What does this fold into?
Amino acid sequence: MDAFKKVVLGAILVFIAAFAFVGYVITDAIESAKIPDDQYGTVTAKGIVTGKEPANYTVTVDENNIIYITSNTTAYEHLEINKTYLFVCHRDVKNAMTVIDSVWQTNRTDT
It folds into this structure.
């Protein structure tokens, strides 16, 4: 009976270790995921981030929707207030922000 208890205890420990490993892998995959989130809108404001966030710049698009630019100074400088753009973004789940990957200026007109 003593050997049976050791086998059961060993199996439980292996199960817990496997479960913890799977949980770690899932958490890491979710935090590192690049979930696409394209946005279209008119730039109403832009600014420089002063906090400890991993982004350097903010862009406010229609109705106070804030999206972030991490390190692309050229893209930030070329954005103009009251111009319409298509922002190719991804969601940064770990930092709870939407980050701009690239910007396309559109020539759409309202009809």
The first helix runs from residue 2 to 32.
